[in-house]
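Box 3.1 A note on notation
Throughout this textbook, protein chains are presented in two layers. The first layer is the amino acid sequence; the second is a token string describing backbone geometry. Keep the layers aligned when reading.
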Amino acid sequence: MKKWICVFLVLFLIPGASETHASLFKKHEELHYERPDHHFSKNAGTITIHHTLDNDEYVLESKGTLETKVPADKQQAQIILMEDGYVKDSAAAWSENESDITVLKQTASEDSGRYDLTGFYGMKNAPVYTYDWSSNSLYVLDTPISDLHSFSIADSKEEKRTGKMMDTIIRQQQQHVKRFIKDSADLPESFRLFPLTDWKKYMTPSVSGLSPDTAEKAWQDVYHTIVDVTASQQKQRKKVMPFLSWDKKRKTLSLYIHYSST
């Protein structure tokens, strides 16, 4: 049975007029941002069942891939794997003077669940830099009366029913956690919280109103905070479920991390 522990709150105050170039790609040189479709031929994340183990356990393979139209000075890829809304695993990779990069992680798991992979992909090829995000899901069904089965896109009525059922359970759990966060942090009911998987929906420069390098810096801060907090809490056998909120008027990004234990 899950026991709710506490809420961890981090505030990122993002400067609006004077922005520092804190991006991994913008430390010592002036670069300008261009749309990723001008430079990327592929950026995608995938989740598959790599193989099964004894006692119905299985190993997931999470992969983030970036391919650029020409070799780039620097590339990076970062992925976060989530299980039923909780952070499961993460990985990152960097390369230089290549036209592709792949970050790969294998993670042991068990039981039924929905896995979501959020990935960030960036490149620098002076005087240009660019980046984008991707997301993908995998549904895994493993019960005493059925064989291990997985799908990303439902092909049958049964898969559609299974997907909707899992989505509903996860959505209800997230609603409970949102209420818990709002009560614990004394937030108004109308306060908008969104999961990490919705980052691109709210935080792309065209939507958030941030400059590209500031939006990238915000992602880097969130990514490293989530990775560090998850590693710390896993030592105590706790799971973390992150939510974010973006105040466009005040240019404040808030990260709320819910802890739970089994």
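The CA atoms of residues 138 and 152 lie 5 Å apart. The mean pLDDT is 88.
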